[in-house]
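Re-run with default settings, no changes from the original entry. Doing this only to confirm the output is reproducible before filing.
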Amino acid sequence: MVTINVRRLDEDVVNRLKRRASLNNRSLEGEVRHILECAADDNMAAKRAAFLEASDRLREKTRGRKQTPAEVLIREDRDRGHRDDF
């Protein structure tokens, strides 16, 4: 394993990385490691392109259909007494 030091990183960047790490249930170090691994993944561009193509196909198939916002569906489910703590 190799250790990399990053000097003079803006405090705002560190705070955003900490928030992102928290959202992903990772440590700051784990989040930075994940970001670097993804950035170094030679197949990432192909994966992203495939995802965007699939998104475009789905968007085209659902064009013109009425969409219900997720927060409305969640609220309706909660109002019916369903809970998301399993």
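The chain is about 65% helix and 0% strand. The chain has one domain: 11-79.
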